[in-house]
Amino acid sequence: MTDDVQKLLDDYREGDNQFKAAGGIEGCMKLANDFYDVMETLPEAKKILFMHPTDLAVSREKLGLFLAGYLNGPELYEEKYGPIKLAQAHAHLAIGTPEKEAWLLCMEKALEKQDWPQEFKAFLLTRLQTPAERCRNRP
Fold this sequence. Notes:
10 helices
């Protein structure tokens, strides 16, 4: 990794730079919508799609609001829905490694649709492995 790339990655970690780089709430909502659009069409995501309600409007909103806070922007999810408890919220679902990997694949494909620097997309995909792992509750 070059020094320039390392500096860029370090810059993303400062303050709300991730949120700004993503385009604010509009960018977070676009990523969430693209994520669910991918999930609805990707065969590998069929199982995790069926874990969601038929109407994905609330799921889309919740993911977008979660992303805003996760990227060091405003805590909009908590303001509307209360504290984020990923493990507890997903405990009723059988989420193992295949489901986690399907979720990350959807996110990877959604990130590809964003008009963001490649380094930022890679940075986010790496960061999003943490909440994906927190949802996993099966070996």
